[in-house]
């Protein structure tokens, strides 16, 4: 038993250093990823269930490390945030999404909203507003075409700087969307203290619709709360017709998920 314990310990400790090595490795490759042009945005359509039309897309970052291996965002966004690279990468994401929003929306009657995920680190960095204004000018993008997705944790910090930044972004004409809603410390009071125009129902609740009565109740509660506060709604992670039907029956019209489309490149999206 003693010997086994020692082997286990060795296994555990080499496992830990494996994680550390991977982190260091990813951080090192991130350093050159931008200049090597290794990033790409994919876009996932958001569909209005009543009209069957695409009303928006969410930009999702893709990283082809060394132009070969695909590293999913969950494996590198956190590292990019901790190391500070997210500031530069975030600017590339915004610039690319702004340009694509211009390509989609120029001459179009009903605008397509392009949603961009913003990390809290980008807000804490005090240059966000200036760099956004600069990018708007450079790309000729209309802020009304852009939705900025933030998470509840950003609102929880409740700092004056963040409140002011969100207010300015709202005044510029951006839409603000609260991502992963229901998974954080969703205090209702936050919703009216900040200029949030849209709530995204987290995919964990959507995926529980078929077999989890609590999740059905949570989905209903979020929808009725959003309505009474005058917020728009998007449900994410919709994978089945049944989930889509339930959401429409609850009067949540805009949905996003694999049932409709995976994230795709700009050229692959037909709008
Ligand atoms: P998120 O913002 O909640 O994005 C939704 C994630 O769910 C995406 O994963 C998307 O591909 C996936 N998804 C969409 N439909 C379905 C579905 O029907 N079923 C399931 N199971 N999943 C679905 P992805 O692209 O791997 O991104 C993961 C997370 O990484 C994102 O979660 C977001 O937090 C972060 N992320 C992605 N792109 C960016 C970015 O440009 N900037 C920042 N700061 N974070 C990003
Ligand atoms: Ca998101
Ligand atoms: Ca989400
Ligand atoms: Ca998320």
Automatic annotation (TrEMBL):
The transmembrane residues are none
Q: Which residues form the EAL domain?
A: 23-271
Protein name (record): EAL domain-containing protein
> Can you name the source organism?
Methylophilus flavus
